Task: structure prediction
Amino acid sequence: MKTIKIGLMRHFKVISPKRKLFLNSKEFNNQIKIYDSKDIQKIEFPKKVKGWEKCISSDYKRAIQTAKLVYGEEFKKSKVIREVPITPAFNTSLKLPFLFWALAGRFAWLINHKSQPEGAKKTIEKIKKFVSLLPKNGSILIVSHGFILQLIRHELIKTGFKGDWFLGAKNGKIYSYKKQSH
Result:
């Protein structure tokens, strides 16, 4: 019997610039672009994590930097496990709270609204395919982003994996999943 072990890890915290409490749609969009371009916070990470044969990282800067710190230089980068893009659900000069924009954007994603670069249907199909293509034995560390990790975790559980539960993945924590196969 073969065992596959999957580790899900959210990137380390990002050096985030202070953001305004209230933003219009254009400012929200710019805030997301700024966040996506930032480095992770400098941390002391004295040794590489052990027990992972392979590592797959999102191709976003913050995930790559995290993977290098915890795994080393030799890992695969994948755009499939990038954070789900978020944009304003509508355009307005009205200044609204950041949380409003984030929740409205995720709701628009959920209903596959045209305001979002990618809808839930496409994201979920992409994650199902990603999980189905993982090796059937060995151990793989996946370094990605909070929202996409929730979707990967959901698909792992649906396909018979057992492991940790989380609602919001903590930065730098590894959540482990195992599955036996013939």
